């Protein structure tokens, strides 16, 4: 009886809530003036692709690796690492700075296995939410400790770079990078911009496999850039999202960074394992800042943690465990290096195939940039209108800046793709 | 010039008051040390716990060769989002049925609060949030950095070690119309003091009459009373009246997924098209922060929530954790009574959830750390989850000494 009374009175109370004083049925929404946001230009492409029912559809939009069957790949070394991890670890919070082991291995990749900077403990480093998270931590750090500074961003760049520094409220400037006519590097203008920027400016550099153009400075050009940076006392933040993916050799792909380190720069590096370890959705990366000494590195790291704490407290453990398991085991690391080279080689093979197909179709345009550019992306030079035609008429999906994700090209679709590109560009 | 760091002037930040406790604990070499700092569940043996059902879900994921690690969409795993909304709002929630709820996967409770706060700072007309005094140490930082200004409302009454209900009503009553109000859905952190259902109803009426915007932090659903539904009553009460609110959910404690960073932000809106537009704006907050959320933890949660047998197993394991904590409360209370420790310690068994607000001051806490190697936050909060039958006597001794040796 007591139980029934309790239930009945509870129900009565519940009914009274919906009709009681202060019921907000009559109010309009707080959000009636919220505008629908524009779709993300990159991620929106995949959304559109998924919605397309055509059997011929091709997704060369987002930069996620596909094998020659167009399927996403989980690396063998990752599968093995996961097998070892499952069931054996706990899921406790990582420290705010993330997995110490994972960060250690990650720094070796960027700074070199025997880096004096690592030995001298001069690198402030924290695990970050892939490349995006690493860039955002740096941008917030820059805003907090160098509030008068701006960030120089190349034209073009990954579109989210602009969002990141804007949300961190760091003013942006641009520097010349891509040369449309040659579909290569506008080196002279780049150097002019570096020279003309106020001394001590902050620059964002793509370490290798520039996104979206695939155009990288040569080694000689990197040396000149480094010298000019020295002369002007500029700060270099390297965004390295494709180490290993560009040439197939991680050491080679870190060359730009090593040159700057040799020349004495104190740099920052945002690293990502999304592509080179295929850990996309795990969100694993690292932000590091090279400091004058260990004391300063400790200070900087502590401040980076203060930025992470009110954003997400501490980073996710699973992806970090995969990385440290692989890189900490010599056999697994070797397997990884082999698999990365395999991915890079397939992409290089597709570049060759796409260019050859276009040339064989009798295109009057030059397509040599396809094989001269490097990394996951090819900046085709197509206009937004031509891209729209590719999508509408051929169900081929890419970002409207004409960027082709070569990872989405396969022996099965390269001819179809070449033909479509030829058709929409042959009138130019 | 190139070797001068541009960050030479950066000074070392103070340790995070909560996470810094574990750092200090780890450095201590005493065999008697006890970590009652961060709210992470421990077994009777003092070990972290991975739930059996979580291990099962993990194995399923690992063995499924077809699983890939592609990017999730910006809003995360769709299944996870739907199931999370149902978990907090109730499976039969009319708001869900009307498509008026947008739910986005975020990085645990912290990430959900931050994304929600950033959205409010951009799209809501009032930029002040009222938080209870006291609250989790990270709350004010989250809201400040998101661009909101933070005010407090009275909550804890040190005299009764219970709720300062009059003070709460007065302070929220004096808030400007439209202000945001942070509410702990259950198991208030750090005090363990929750309003009764009757008090929640009064709070709801006041909030709705002043058109204040409720923002729930639900980090302990199921952990407080042992019942998932009971622990969500406060939130459901507000949704039932047809009004709007925000809710941040965490699976860190109730599924033991701490380091996987799994959580969800739900915004309950008046209409479906509003919810859709709100979701599109949430994406713009998330993309420049971390692009898309981590897949692993959310996959585990979804696997468990969608399978009725695993869900049931989860509720059993969850209740066991909640029961062990209740038992620790009882044991500590009895141990202090047995020692004749001066003061009224009944709040230990009246408060609810993972934490007890002991009422000890920072000097007493420092004493306990120094002399008894007890690690806790300086506000006197202890995590009951860090206790075991074996260690309760040591803690009781320490409290007794701290209270009786006060200079």
TrEMBL record, chain A:
Identify a single GO molecular function assigned to this protein: pyridoxal phosphate binding
Q: What is one Gene Ontology biological process annotated in the Swiss-Prot or TrEMBL record?
A: amino acid metabolic process
- Residues covered by the Aminotransferase class I/classII large domain: 56-421
Q: Which keywords fit this entry according to its UniProt record? A: Aminotransferase, Pyridoxal phosphate, Transferase
A GO-annotated cellular component = mitochondrion
Q: Which cofactor does it need?
A: pyridoxal 5'-phosphate
EC id: 2.6.1.1
Respond yes or no to whether keyword Manganese is given for this record.
no
Q: Which domain of life is it from?
A: Eukaryota
Pfam families assigned to the protein according to its UniProt record, in alphabetical order: Aminotran_1_2
Quickly give the catalysed reaction: L-aspartate + 2-oxoglutarate = oxaloacetate + L-glutamate
The annotated subunit structure for this chain is:
Homodimer.
Family under the similarity heading: Belongs to the class-I pyridoxal-phosphate-dependent aminotransferase family.
One further remark on this entry is: In eukaryotes there are cytoplasmic, mitochondrial and chloroplastic isozymes.
What's its job? Important for the metabolism of amino acids and Krebs-cycle related organic acids. In plants, it is involved in nitrogen metabolism and in aspects of carbon and energy metabolism.
Q: What is this protein called?
A: Aspartate aminotransferase
Automatic annotation (TrEMBL), chain B:
Residue ranges constituting the Aminotransferase class I/classII large domain according to the UniProt record: 32-399
Cofactor(s) annotated in UniProt:
pyridoxal 5'-phosphate
**EC number(s) on record?**
2.6.1.1
Q: Which GO terms describe its cellular component?
A: mitochondrion
Q: Which Pfam families match?
A: Aminotran_1_2 (PF00155)
Key words of the record: Aminotransferase, Pyridoxal phosphate, Transferase
GO MF, one example: pyridoxal phosphate binding
Complex formation: Homodimer.
Name the record gives this protein:
Aspartate aminotransferase
What are the top taxonomic ranks of the organism? Answer: Eukaryota, Viridiplantae, Streptophyta, Embryophyta, Tracheophyta
